[in-house]
Amino acid sequence: MAIHYQGFMRERIRRNPVTIGPDASFFEARSLIHDKGIRHLPVVDHENRLLGIVTENDIRAAGPSDVAALSVKELTDLLGSLKVSEFMVPKEKVITINPDTLIEEALQLMHDHKIGCLPVIDEGKLYGIFTETDALAHFVDIFGLKQKGTRLSVAFEDKAGAMAGILEVFKKHHVDVISIVSASFLVEEKRIAAVRIKTENYEPIVKDLEKAGYPVLSVGKWPSV
Question: Among 120, 123, 197, 224, whose CB has the most other CB atoms within 10 angstroms?
């Protein structure tokens, strides 16, 4: 059986996102963001090419600074005449990715640039969008957070093949591993792995791990509620 999952963005992208045109009004953009429950609104032309992006923060910042000095009619007229192109973040300042970007690279871009979304461009046109909500959903899926079991924090030597011994213990107990996450940093010259296993009968496993020289630092049921 062929396995097609490769860890690229095209497998996690939200296709056909809500978009808006550059000549739409402030009120149209605000209504779309509020009514659709979204925080990022790509601005595209008639050929679906990205021109910029509007966020909740852009909507808030677009209003006049001294609202109290304006009447309701003046404020409505002012904002009604304001076009999206006048307050959007232009495409030159928008960080984008393509469908074949690695998911890890996309997450690092969002982290490093402190942004909440990445428009996805393919052949010059908007292919989709990847948001912080999608990033969190990816973590939930890849770490198996919705699967019931036990989470063990295990310490091991920082050397090649050290984790193989941990897996041998799980194999001995015929336990399925849901996920393994190993920290990139050392704690008292040891690597730490958070391992989720598909069992709640963890006592004999912990005993054998420690007998094999792998201290178990903590044990938790997952989900915890």
Answer: 120
